[in-house]
Amino acid sequence: MLAILRKEFNSFLNSPVAYVVMGVFLVATGLFVWVFPDSSVLDYGFADLQTLFNIAPWIFLFLIPALTMRTFAEEKKAGTMELLLTRPLTDGQIIGGKYLACLLLALLALVPTLLYYYSVYQLGNPSGNIDSAATVGSYLGLALLAAVFAAIGVLASALTRDQIVAFLAAVVGCFLVYSGFDSLASVFDGGLAYYIGQLGIAAHYRDLAKGLIDSRDLLYFLSLIAGCLLATRLVLQSRNW
């Protein structure tokens, strides 16, 4: 699995895809956090990074599928999928290596945003007047969100040999899991609306953004990731049916 991980990660770094994705993410979040007057921290008057954590999931919704769309679709289209599957590797190792490479690149894009935290920390009055617990929870939520989106993207790529189709399927899947249940919950009232909302990522992400790291939220994210990766494995194993 580590060999596949290194191969995939190096292939990202040797192509413009990684730099375009990270560049777009940092430019977009930077504009919303520091420049646009309706969302700028400088104009908002409060020392927090809520703008970053509100906009980042929507940017990830498009950028992570752009990373994952080539994982299996490109192998199928190039005819190298059969060669890969005949190597002394299990399906789990192949999926794990490709998945972790995409996730690692997505998490790498988050690292420069730590400068945002440092800047807001210093700009607070007094210095350090920022809810660090909520910030840590929000970063954890973003990392788990990226992990789920990457798992959905890998599954979408395994289902087709066309990268564009894989990209569109992943975007739709990520959108439905992130925001679809919230939209559906708004149709209902009372307890039913609450339980429907809990099926989506947004509700659990909001809980983590408050600094409340609950085992139920972590279990939800891990279950989604495991479910998508197991489904990807079933897709690969279907070649033997």
Describe it for me?
It is a single chain. Helices cover 78% and strands 0% of the residues. The protein is built from 13 helices and no strands.
Rounded to the nearest angstrom, the radius of gyration is 19 Å
Counting copies of identical and different chains, the oligomeric state is single chain
Please indicate the percent range of residues in DSSP E strands (runs of 2 or more). Answer: under 5%
Distance between the termini: 25 Å
Q: Average pLDDT value? A: 86
Structural class: mainly alpha
Number of strands: 0
The gross shape turns out to be: globular
Instruction: Summarize the amount of helix as a percent range.
Output: over 70%
Pick out the low-confidence regions: none
Pfam family, one: ABC2_membrane_5
Transmembrane segments: 12-35, 55-73, 94-118, 138-157, 164-181, 218-236
Organism: Hymenobacter endophyticus
Protein name: Gliding motility-associated ABC transporter permease subunit GldF
Write the layout of secondary structure elements.
Blueprint: H1 2-13, H2 16-35, H3 41-44, H4 50-68, H5 73-78, H6 81-85, H7 91-110, H8 114-123, H9 132-158, H10 163-185, H11 190-198, H12 201-209, H13 215-237
Helix pairs in contact: 1-7, 2-4, 2-7, 4-7, 4-9, 4-10, 7-9, 7-13, 9-10, 9-12, 9-13, 10-11
